[in-house]
Amino acid sequence: MSSLRQSALEQVIKGHEDKKVSHYNGKRITAIFNSHVFTERLMREYLSDEAYKSLMNSRKNGTKVERRVADQIASGMKAWAEERGVTHYTHWFQPLTGTTAEKHDSFFTIKSDGTAIELFDGDTLIQQEPDASSFPNGGIRATFEARGYTAWDPSSPAFIMESGFGKTLCIPTIFIAYNGESLDYKAPLIKSAAALDKAAVDVCHYFDKNVSKVNVTLGWEQEYFLVDEAIANARPDLVMCGRTLVGHPPAKGQQLDDHYFGSIPDRVFAFMQDYEQEAYKLGIPLRTRHNEVAPSQFECAPIFEEVNIAVDHNTLLMDIMSKVAKRHKLMVLLHEKPFAGVNGSGKHNNWSLSTDTGVNLLSPGKTPRTNLMFLTFFVNAIKAVHDYADLLRGAIASASNDHRLGANEAPPAIISVYLGKYLSEVLDEVETRVNDNFTEQDEVLLKLDIHKHIPEVLMDNTDRNRTSPFAFTGNKFEFRAVGSSANCASPMTVLNTMMAETLKQFKKDVDSLIEKGDKKEVAIMHVLRKYITTSKKIRFEGDNYSDEWAAEAKKRGLSNFKTTPEALDVFVSKMAKDLFTSNGIYSERELDARHEIMLEDYVKKVQIEARIIGNLATNHILPAAVKYQNILMENVKSLKDLGIDETGYKAQLNLVKVIGKHIQSLNDNVEAMIAARKVANNETDMHKRADLYCNTIKNLFEEIRYPADKLELIVDNSLWPLPTYHEMLYFG
Ligand code: ADP
Ligand code: MG
Questions:
Q1: Which domain holds residue 605?
Q2: Is the C-beta atom of 218 inside 6 A of ligand 1?
Q3: Per-residue model confidence as pLDDT tens digits over 665-684
Q4: Is residue 301 within 6 Å of ligand 1 at its C-beta?
Q5: With a threshold of 0.90, does the pTM exceed it?
Q6: Using a 6 Å cutoff on CB, does residue 476 contact ligand 1?
Q7: Dihedral over Cα of 359, 475, 416, 509: its sign
Q8: What CATH number is attached to the domain comprising 636?
Q9: Rounded CA gap, 187 and 174, in Å?
């Protein structure tokens, strides 16, 4: 048996020594929650009145912190951190590589007279210049101006990251170029939340003048797979690409439906408790854990938070999970589709808006007046998705998510909205009853009617559609097409911006009717009616996985971008440029740069997969097949030498031929793929190159996989070099 696979299996069979994890030490979660975070309570404790007030103001209203005050804040933070054994600090940011980045510096420094001191001042807190020319920038930073800055984001609290015996103070930051153009996920996200805040507050004022801030809320649900680390390490494709490129599906997949919500294995449970504990220390409010549909697939979800914090917490958690998994000799797979033939992983983004007066704007109210407010935000959200569906699709496009969308386990690439029976009826009612003769008297009636239709508690699990990409779930929308490895900031930025734009337009439309003499409520109902009518085609209540829906959606004129390169085009459309520039989220240059970066990322990911599948075929699978073929040939020869006639070795002879056929096919397809790669790599236009990777090279993966998986079924198991699906999904 091949050494890596063999030793991996031996390790698993021997069993891993269970790591002694202090599982909460019997403490309540509240006792460790936020213990590594510079919370508002600690800010109060460690900062002067002036510094505290300035920081609070900045956190709430986005005002700038003065340099002098920043010094005070930095010294308070340092004092807090040093008391907890911290020696280093880092600006923590989320570049467009899709991971988090950090560069550690120590507080330690030497003064001009040679005295050694510990120092952390306002300048260091506010801004750093990481030597970051190698982060993706889509041409924004030519090398001569290759300066990128990380700038402190006071709205997300600083935290202490523990790693081994080291402790580091992490300052959440945004990452921007020398001229202010954003180079990360967070800067645009923060801008989009601010744009939506402003637009939503303006609309709230029709109903409640006391609202002065609207927060975007996000609750994500993170799915992932776990594989024994030794087994995973014997699979170059898992290590390098996060997914298997070859491998025959196991006899038992998820067909028995016995994994979802099943009992959690002890080893996995220990891992979950361990990473949850780390997460609680950092203030990540995890709430839910359970098995998912596929074997070895699991999910966790926190209590929702303000969107910027929620995004930080999700990226932080992905990082923590990967690190903690190592302690348990496990590997976490965050890839959208690690295994063919079993479900992939997503990251549902639950999105809503809440006011500083404590109202969830997407939660049906108890009175006709609050219901009209609900209806306003609800209908505007539907219209936003209708108008900008292609952007929403573009925001979740990635090489890895392509394997999941539309694969009958996740929403299709067609964006639609699911409302549920009650609310569909309400909208239909508004549509038929609010006509040109609609008057104030009707209005009272109608409002009451609406109220009657919206039950107080709508969160009825039976009225849910699990196949919809964008579903209303009673008090929030759930965007289900987001990939498990994605940074939620990308879809959230798009969603916030399109909602901001729609609400701005809504206010204009209502105001112009009011100017013409309509009473406020009448004007609102008229505009809502118009929006309901014009955005009707985006509503779909049926089975999104069905072929009928694809046909119906086509008839309705809805887009269906199946692959990333075509889905990304929307970011350089006039629609996107108008939307993002007018709301101050991205300049045209930033959009072009992002488009370029995303295409490049796509190409690189597929390119790496192409290399790895080529290696697997040529250096792992082919030699094993040849070895086994030789054994068979020896056998046939010996039998023949003994004078046995052909009936005595027919099966072996046949196998020799079949193996030969598969080897030939494997080899031919790898060669074809290498040739296609050469053509693609010579293509200088990034879009055309991405198309080639998407439409020729990637298609050859299946052609290579087919003979490879057939050989896996034929070749002597003890000669097979790669851990099998069954070993990855069911061992350990
Ligand atoms: P499920 O969708 O599995 O039935 P829930 O409805 O309880 O579960 O919530 C799923 C996720 O939605 C959780 O992460 C939760 O925090 C989040 N969520 C609940 N309310 C809101 C809200 N108002 N805004 C954003 N996310 C929310
Ligand atoms: Mg959900």
A1: 601-730
A2: yes
A3: 999 999 999 999 999 999 99
A4: yes
A5: yes
A6: yes
A7: negative
A8: 1.20.120.1560
A9: 5
